[in-house]
């Protein structure tokens, strides 16, 4: 069926001239837009016109999106579990990232999954990627996410190799705010904090993504066995499996990510040039070797102390997000008013998607 082949079922009172034009905005899913008016089977809403830095027309609470309302633009990334595409909402022209994870789970888990993914939708923090809606259809979870036009920190690190301390402090502060929100407001452990789950954009923002998703996938892994995360950033207590792990497990991961950003390479070095023989060797290093630290001849004492506050093998010895937010490493660069916009843009000029959309 083509757009405009059928008339809207909902009868609304519009000026006569508008009644003709409105059908051309009708989508197959039943959402259409005419100027400031957004209409679907759930009702009519007034929305403001799109301008570049205006708040998004679609809000996470809308709960009215359908996959049929989006045009696929291009593939922007692939992970272990699935594929991420840039998509555009047909009527508001707003860009989103659509993540599709193939996963055949039992019928009984579908409701639980939908329920748990709702946590994502309830988040309201500038340093957490907004999840607008999630669907489970034909053995795949589809999640509509806020589009981050700078890509991931992993992509960024590939371009810049390492990040100087002042920029790193500004970025770390944002990650800590996002993590504080997950821990203290949503009461969830991220479980999979790593460079590819930290996303950046042209406004100089850094946001955490894929929280909740990994928790859901881990919980349902017995049924799914399609999801294999990386062990690189997992805390010793989580790998060891002896005791239950908590919020401080994310602090360990954060410490490793920040140290990797500063040094330009993953803090655990493999025993030979070819890399790790197998994942158990790395896991053994994390559990049985001393925690990595920042070399004091290359970094400020404040930075070294920050890393040490995160990379403690005993979770009780690690600082919390609250404590880290007031750590001297974060504080000493605050007065410098570091602007991440030009920094991200400069690195982006060597091939990033930054500011393309
Ligand atoms: P893994 O599957 O091991 O967790 P991953 O985190 O890289 O790895 P995905 O979460 O599927 O896997 O993401 C793949 C890539 O897609 C990311 O590295 C990032 O470059 C891109 N991406 C993901 N979400 C978004 C988004 N909301 N906006 C822009 N790019 C995104
Ligand atoms: Mg991810």
List the helices and strands and how they pair.
Elements: H1 16-22, E1 32-34, E2 37-40, E3 43-46, E4 70-78, E5 82-89, E6 95-102, H2 107-121, E7 131-137, E8 140-146, H3 153-160, H4 165-185, E9 198-200, E10 206-208, H5 213-219, H6 221-224, H7 236-240, H8 248-263, H9 279-288, H10 301-310, H11 321-325, H12 328-334, H13 340-348
Antiparallel strand pairs: 1-2, 2-3, 4-5, 5-6, 6-8, 7-8, 9-10
Bound molecules: adenosine-5'-triphosphate (ATP) and magnesium ion.
Residues 79, 196-197, 210 line the site of magnesium ion (MG).
Beta fraction: 15-25%
- What class would the helix/strand composition place it in? alpha+beta
The first-to-last residue Cα distance is 30 Å
User: How many DSSP H or I helices?
Assistant: 13
The biggest beta sheet is recorded as: 5 strands, antiparallel
Instruction: Indicate the percent of residues in helices.
Output: 25-40%
Give an account of the 3D structure:
With 357 residues, the chain is an alpha+beta fold. Helix content is 35%, strand content 16%. The strands form three sheets. It has a five-stranded antiparallel β-sheet, with helices on one face. A three-stranded antiparallel β-sheet has the order 1-2-3, covered by helices on one side. Strands 9-10 form a two-stranded antiparallel ribbon. Helix 4 packs antiparallel against helix 8 (248-263), helix 4 (165-185) packs across helix 12 (328-334) and helix 8 runs antiparallel to helix 10 (301-310). The longest helix has 21 residues, at 165-185. It is globular. Residues 1-29, 41-55 and 221-228 have low confidence and may be disordered. Bound molecules: adenosine-5'-triphosphate (ATP) and magnesium ion (MG). Residues 76-82, 84, 97, 99, 129, 145-148, 151-152, 154-155, 196-197, 199, 209-210, 229-230 line the site of adenosine-5'-triphosphate. Adenosine-5'-triphosphate binds at residues 76-82, 84, 97, 99, 129, 145-148, 151-152, 154-155, 196-197, 199, 209-210, 229-230.
């Amino acid at each position: 069926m083509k757009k405009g082949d059928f008339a809207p079922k909902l009868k609304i009172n519009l000026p006569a001239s508008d009644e003709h034009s409105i059908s051309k905005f009708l989508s197959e899913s039943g959402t259409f837009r005419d100027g400031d008016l957004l209409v679907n089977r759930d009702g009519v809403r007034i929305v403001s016109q799109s301008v570049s830095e205006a708040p998004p027309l679609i809000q996470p609470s809308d709960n009215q999106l359908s996959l049929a309302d989006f045009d696929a633009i291009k593939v922007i990334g692939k992970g272990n579990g699935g594929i991420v595409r840039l998509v555009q909402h047909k009527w508001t022209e707003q860009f989103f990232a659509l993540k599709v994870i193939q996963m055949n789970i039992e019928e009984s888990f579908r409701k639980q999954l939908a329920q748990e993914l709702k946590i994502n939708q309830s988040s309201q923090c500038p340093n957490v990627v907004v999840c607008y809606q999630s669907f489970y259809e034909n053995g795949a979870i589809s999640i509509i996410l806020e589009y981050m036009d700078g890509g991931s920190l992993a992509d960024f690190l590939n371009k810049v190799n390492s990040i100087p301390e002042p920029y790193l402090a500004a970025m770390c502060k944002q990650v800590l705010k996002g993590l504080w929100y997950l821990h203290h407001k949503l009461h969830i452990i991220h479980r999979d904090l790593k460079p590819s789950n930290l996303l950046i954009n042209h406004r100089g923002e850094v946001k955490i993504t894929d929280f909740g998703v990994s928790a859901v996938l881990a919980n349902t892994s017995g049924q799914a066995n399609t999801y294999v995360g990386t062990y690189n950033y997992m805390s010793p207590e989580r790998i060891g499996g002896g005791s239950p792990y908590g919020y401080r497990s994310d602090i360990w991961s954060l410490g490793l990510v920040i140290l990797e950003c500063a040094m330009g390479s993953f803090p655990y070095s493999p025993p030979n040039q070819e890399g790790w023989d197998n994942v158990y060797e790395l896991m053994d290093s994390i559990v049985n070797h001393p925690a990595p630290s920042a070399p004091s001849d290359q970094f400020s004492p404040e930075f070294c102390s920050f890393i040490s506050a995160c990379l403690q093998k005993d979770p009780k010895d690690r600082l919390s997000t609250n404590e880290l937010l007031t750590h001297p490493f974060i504080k000493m660069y605050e007065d410098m008013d570091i602007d991440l916009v030009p920094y991200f843009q400069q690195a982006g000029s060597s091939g990033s998607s930054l500011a393309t959309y």
